[in-house]
Design brief:
Layout (H helix, E strand, L loop, with lengths): L20 H56 L8 H34 L9 E4 H19 L6 E6 L5 E4 L1 H25 L7 E8 L3 E8 L6 H4 L19 H12 L3 E7 L3 E9 L8
Parallel strand pairs: 2-4
Antiparallel strand pairs: 1-3, 4-5, 5-7, 6-7
Keywords: Kinase, Phosphoprotein, Transferase
Catalytic activity: ATP + protein L-histidine = ADP + protein N-phospho-L-histidine
Protein name: histidine kinase
């Protein structure tokens, strides 16, 4: 009688089992998504270049207009005592305020465009003194508006608790803003999914905090979505792992974000969550380490 064959211990297998048809189909879908994203990225870069030039024109002429208003204010002193003198000063003051706001918002739009263009380049990261709080606020709002553009019913309360003591620190800003976008977009998705299925007085909320400590800066992005189960949390930073439906995510955002924070910035990216209550991602950046251009 032939002896039964010994079944190999799975832990001793040297070759992994072949991927199932379902896994192959999922990987193929991911490749299609990435190829589509690459095409969109090229198109977007061209559009951004076309927008950048007229926007730069607007910003420059806004600054020049403020200078001209200052000159006009100097000339109007000659008419002091005229019945309409005070009214003229009021009008010039309002005009100057409006032009200043045009210039400020034009500069903000330019920063966002430059940041997006930088992400289409494959050049090595460049570290520079960066206003972290300004970056957090701008890209959080940008992520929210991006989410809202696809779902007009989506509304979320954005709460900012930003430590003014942080100031400027060395960062690779164009890579770091990608992390902020990824984390806030994930938070928006989480609270929006809970909003769709929950009745009652649920109010989607995302809280962004920053704090300067003795040896590091901590940044926390917290949402009051459904939370993340422990078995999912263990896989979150695995490339191509996603809990979103096909077409909604590539599964690369958190993996790339961890590489940018842990590898490039020598910091750490971690997550805490409680099912049904919250999810909070924490970025820790060291202060006592000289950042080197990568």
């Amino acid at each position: 009688m032939e002896a039964p064959k010994k079944i190999a211990d799975p832990g001793q297998l040297t070759n992994p089992p072949p991927a199932s048809n379902t896994e192959l189909a999922m990987l193929q879908e991911r490749v299609v998504q990435l190829d589509r994203l690459a095409s969109i990225g090229q198109l977007t870069a061209g559009i951004l270049h076309e927008i950048k030039n007229p926007l730069n024109f607007i910003t420059n002429y806004a600054h020049l207009s403020v200078d001209l208003i200052d000159e006009i204010e100097g000339i109007t002193i000659k008419f002091e005592g005229h019945p309409d003198y005070e009214d003229l000063l009021d009008v010039l003051g309002m005009l100057k305020g409006n032009v200043l706001r045009i210039g400020e918002n034009g500069s903000r739009a330019e920063r966002i465009i430059l940041g997006m263009l930088a992400q289409t380049h494959s050049d090595s990261a460049s570290f520079e003194p960066t206003d972290v709080n300004t970056l957090l606020e701008e890209y959080t709002k940008l992520a929210y508006q991006g989410m809202r553009s696809g779902d007009k019913e989506f509304v979320v309360s954005l709460l900012f608790q930003l430590d003014p003591a942080i100031g400027k620190i060395p960062l690779a800003p164009y890579e770091f803003n990608r992390v902020v976008l990824n984390l806030v977009l994930n938070a928006c998705y989480a609270v929006n999914e809970r909003r769709k299925k929950q009745v009652g007085d649920y109010k989607p909320t995302i809280t962004v905090t920053s704090q300067r400590l003795d040896d590091r800066i901590d940044i926390k992005i917290r949402d009051n979505g459904d939370g993340i189960p422990d078995e999912v949390k263990a896989k979150l930073f695995t490339p191509f792992f996603t809990t979103k439906p096909v077409g909604k995510g590539t599964g690369l955002g958190l993996s790339l974000s961890r590489d940018i924070i842990n590898g490039m910035h020598k910091g750490s990216l971690s997550v805490n969550s409680e099912a049904g209550i919250y999810t909070e991602f924490t970025i820790s950046l060291p202060l006592n380490q000289e950042q080197q251009n990568q």
